[in-house]
Amino acid sequence: MNLDDFTQELTLQDGSKQTIHHLEFESKQKDQPTTILINTKDLNNTGNGLYITTTGGDELFYPVSLAEEPTKTITVTNDAGKNREVKVNTVIKVATPEDSSDPMQIVGDTYFLFYNNQGTISLATRNFAENTAGTALDTTNLVEYLQEGSTAEEPTTPAESEVDSDTYYDSILAAWQRQHDYIVSIEDDAVKQSVQTSHSAAIFEANRLQMEHPEDAAIINESLHKVLEGK
User: Fold this and answer.
1) How far apart are CA 97 and CA 26, in angstroms?
2) Region of 66 on the Ramachandran plot (φ > 0 left; ψ -120 to 50 alpha; else beta)
3) In this structure, how many other beta carbons lie within 10 angstroms of the beta carbon of residue 218?
4) pTM higher than 0.90 for the full model?
């Protein structure tokens, strides 16, 4: 995935612009940290930081490294309690803080970023309730954290044998439309400026489809351009 998607420009109350390089993810699942924030321009030795807010309200920090690896399949559970397999190639490796602390016993864990079926980014982490900290990470039992404000959905991509150009177009257009409708519903202009654009949502969805169907990259790219050009 493209880590530039973490970059957002906010409009402050005085009209000035501020660029941020982080996204906040949340989970409503029982006994999981409530929010996890990833900053790709962090002021530490790795340049990337992971900030965890526990159910008890504790705030913890870990330096992390982000890298691309060969695509693999993992299993995630979303807020609706549904399991699904997703393909990932962007990994987050948890490093040791400078003070050598490890309050959650997760140093050495590998988590994953991927585009979900809403056209936004999901974070897959350890299942802290069932695969407790301090034990080996189980990549068949991971929890999906969604970007703030997103809702859990079932996978919408049809079986490969049923996929055609119209299906790709419809999926990308739906991602564009969902985000467009969400932006229109926001009354606060400052908040409206801070959320992902419908243009980006369409690109996210196209990237997700290309990961799942690399053999159809040309068709997917053509469908994306049709959506972005309003055809």
Assistant:
1) 23
2) beta
3) 10
4) no
